[in-house]
């Protein structure tokens, strides 16, 4: 669930990391919670900060749409030192991420719009639950051979609590799929493919590198990511079950009258009375509550965003005479929905 350590894609980070964590019962990362976060990406690609080969046209400096995935520790979107997957390569080279779909270990897929200039902002929301508390994002630097900005497996649940706010500065990253050194370099595929690496003021060390500023200790931040907790939903399965009031059975007192009878009639009557006593004895036994099976989960109440779904079971037989009572819960509700179906279609680079 939560972790005492924040897990970051270290090579994508520059400068400050600011974390705000509020501890209250409603912020616990419990299995029945769904946290809604807003992610903002502010870009700082100023010409004064990055004067070398600053792109001004065809196309000017900008960023593709922001692609993101909410997942658990079993899934990796991208990671420094590993080779880029085909989907990351497509984003880094083309800015397209239509193949980012849900799969094992993934809770939600989201996207935010493009930033059409070097300085701007884009934002969107996403959902995280206690089983999927990590988020990874990626956005192509436009123009560039295969460069992007992003975050790797950012942990949103810290010490068992949902983070309130998180701010991270990030710099350019090389996907390792293209040989180009400059923003407008031709598409020369790397053979063999290189691992993902951080672009710094001194690396790659080639003078033609568009981000090569050897006199700087580090590059200024290219973008800043902000995570803001909007709301925490908590599923409530407690629903009281009230059956009809049940009165205790009352048996009428019958006076016994002894009447001499013929032997055959006496034997027949004795059998009938014996059977009646057995029936009454069985009728006085306890009866346990009997429930039906749970129904299938209903259709989610929202096709885009947070909704709820429910299932029910019915009482077939009420308990009697000290039998096992009916449980209070005959209806269960849980949250559902995702941001995937809310993604708008943007122009793909």
UniProtKB/TrEMBL annotation:
Superkingdom to which the source organism belongs: Eukaryota
Location of the Spondin domain: 25-207
Signal peptide location: 1-22
Gene3D superfamilies documented for this protein: F-spondin domain (2.60.40.2130), Thrombospondin type-1 (TSP1) repeat (2.20.100.10)
Tagged with keyword Secreted: yes
Chief subcellular location: secreted
The keyword Manganese appears for this protein: no
One annotated GO molecular function: metal ion binding
Keywords: Cell adhesion, Disulfide bond, Extracellular matrix, Glycoprotein, Metal-binding, Secreted, Signal
InterPro entries: Spondin/Thrombospondin_T1, Spondin_N, Spondin_N_sf, TSP1_rpt, TSP1_rpt_sf, TSP1_spondin_dom
Subcellular localization: Secreted, Extracellular space, Extracellular matrix
Gene Ontology BP terms: cell adhesion
A Pfam family it matches: TSP1_spondin
Protein name: Spondin-2 isoform X1
Organism: Cephus cinctus (Wheat stem sawfly)
């Amino acid at each position: 669930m939560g972790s005492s350590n924040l897990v970051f894609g270290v090579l994508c980070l520059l400068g400050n990391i600011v974390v705000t964590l509020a501890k209250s019962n409603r912020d616990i990362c419990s299995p029945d919670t769904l946290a809604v976060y807003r992610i903002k990406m502010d870009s700082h690609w100023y010409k004064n900060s990055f004067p070398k080969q600053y792109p001004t046209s065809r196309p000017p400096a900008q960023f593709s749409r922001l692609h993101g995935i909410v997942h658990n520790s079993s899934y990796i979107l991208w990671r420094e030192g590993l080779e880029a997957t085909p989907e990351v390569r497509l984003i880094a080279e083309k800015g397209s991420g239509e193949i980012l779909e849900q799969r094992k270990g993934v809770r939600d897929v989201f996207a935010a719009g493009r930033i059409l200039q070097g300085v701007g902002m884009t934002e969107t929301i996403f959902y995280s639950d206690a089983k999927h508390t990590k988020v990874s994002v990626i956005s192509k630097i436009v123009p560039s051979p295969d460069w992007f900005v992003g975050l790797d497996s950012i942990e949103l649940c810290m010490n068992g609590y949902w983070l309130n706010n998180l701010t991270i500065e990030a710099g350019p990253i090389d996907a390792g799929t293209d040989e180009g050194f400059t923003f407008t370099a031709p598409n020369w595929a790397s053979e063999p493919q290189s691992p993902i690496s951080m672009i710094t003021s001194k690396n790659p060390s080639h003078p033609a590198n568009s981000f090569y500023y050897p006199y700087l200790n580090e590059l200024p931040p290219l973008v800043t990511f902000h995570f803001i907790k909007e709301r925490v939903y908590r599923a409530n399965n407690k629903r009281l079950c009230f059956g009809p009031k049940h009165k205790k059975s009352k048996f009428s007192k019958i006076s016994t009258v002894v009447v001499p009878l013929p032997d055959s009639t006496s034997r027949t009557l004795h059998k009938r009375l014996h059977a009646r006593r057995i029936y009454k004895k069985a009728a006085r036994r306890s009866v346990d509550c009997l429930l039906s099976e749970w129904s299938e989960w209903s259709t989610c109440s929202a096709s885009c965003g947070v909704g709820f779904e429910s299932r029910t079971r019915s009482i077939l037989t009420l308990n009697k005479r000290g039998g096992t009572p009916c449980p209070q819960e005959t209806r269960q509700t849980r949250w559902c929905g995702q941001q995937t179906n809310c993604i708008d279609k943007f122009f793909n680079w």
